[in-house]
Amino acid sequence: xxxxxxxxxxxxxxxxxxxxxxxxxxxxxxxxxxxxxxxxxxxxxxxxxxxxxxxxxxxxxxxxxxxxxxxxxxxxxxxxxxxxxxxxxxxxxxxxxxxxxxxxxxxxxxxxxxxxxxxxxxxxxxxxxxxxxxxxxxxxxxxxxxxxxxxxxxxxxxxxxxxxxxxxxxxxxxxxxxxxxxxxxxxxxxxxxxxxxxxxxxxxxxxxxxxxxxxxxxxxxxxxxxxxxxxxxxxxxxxxxxxxxxxxxxxxxxxxxxxxxxxxxxxxxxxxxxxxxxxxxxxxxxxxxxxxxxxxxxxxxxxxxxxxxxxxxxxxxxxxxxxxxxxxxxxxxxxxxxxxxxxxxxxxxxxxxxxxxxxxxxxxxxxxxxxxxxxxxxxxxxxxxxxxxxxxxxxxxxxxxxxxxxxxxxxxxxxxxxxxxxxxxxxxxxxxxxxxxxxxxxxxxxxxxxxxxxxxxxxxxxxxxxxxxxxxxxxxxxxxxxxxxxxxxxxxxxxxxxxxxxxxxxxxxxxxxxxxxxxxxxxxxxxxxxxxxxxxxxxxxxxxxxxxxxxxxxxx
Length: 556
Prior knowledge:
Low-confidence stretches: none
Oligomer: single chain
Number of domains: 3
Number of strands: 31
Largest sheet: 7 strands, parallel
Strand order of the largest sheet: 14-26-25-24-23-22-17
Number of helices: 10
CATH topology of the largest domain: TIM Barrel
């Protein structure tokens, strides 16, 4: 119901570095129905014959989802834009309705800087228009692997179920498309090789048999896993890997378990030896492959205070067996946990910067996460929040010297509790419903609109009952695009910081102070955790300043 914008422009303008993606919305609102409408961008011409090829441009169709239950006080019950299905084939556009188009440009690495010009061509029965598009490319490129670490869940089971995939070849083909898409958004999955796990060859000993050190040796077959992980790190440029543990199923204080390995229960000397041999062998192979810096253990989630002794016992064992693999815990710094995790990952609201800075002095690292919490007035991952929030979150991440972000899932399309009889259609029901605890089947308890859902299944697989296998890749969301933009913003800041460290001594004191001031996040973007921009304009303004400074440092 808001009025139409009154500012007029001459076309679309984007500003980005090489090896970066950027998007703009073009909203069509016809005064009469348009039949057989199509849109395409055929590439852009730049300086000295350089081009951004047509295949580096995409036109996506912005689709709305019907929010019936607002997540919190920020949202309203209304259609909200989020899915971005590919624009395929002509469509009919009704009169008087908005049909936004998502125009995405991805620049090649080391593309010459300058202005690139082209057009978005619009065609329909009795209608044609050409909308100019200009892309200003900066004289630097982003690296293939981002500085900000990411760790996001991806459920192959959901993907296979919705797409109707029954053979391993089908599953591998489609899963690769999901991994490619995560890579394009600079998002690392927990497990980048879900179809190619390494094989553990356990010794053939059982409780009651005599054992010695040689009989408890653990061997591995790395063949398929190494090939998949080389693709993950060298082609997809992921920057983290959730390393699997064994023998850590301690349960919680309220439901304690005694873990075992090959039948040997915790407390047995054989259990201790097998635990050490497995985790130490994994560490040494990661070292040999050069992947140790990407690895982290994530074996316990969101402990309660009464769970802390269990958590500390597990971390003590992991530290003894594999001290060079980071030990991550989704919890804020608490005195009782000091010395256990060395990679802390609280959710954003309870993050305590003073405590974090104290732990950084001891070499600890920090990530943080969002999920069903926090809700308004904090930045959240919800569909019915301002789209800037996922991007602002990365500026808040930089502002607090945090190294990475985590989200529990990207393909949470259905809840077996809320939808016990047939899977949820995420295009028709955008809510992420609770699927944990003792709730009766059919009971619907909300987590939040879009929680755990950054990618959608293809429209042909929306209800998980396709007529046949759907081999297309995922459908992006506006929130996933905003995450990518935020990670790229973070990279601008990281590049500037590195250049100042390398070349700052060559600058005058006045110029160095001026450049270093750009590493501080301005209050117009975010001044605290609940005060931040709902409009991208201040972000774009600051990005331009940083980009021009990077160009200046590279040319000096």
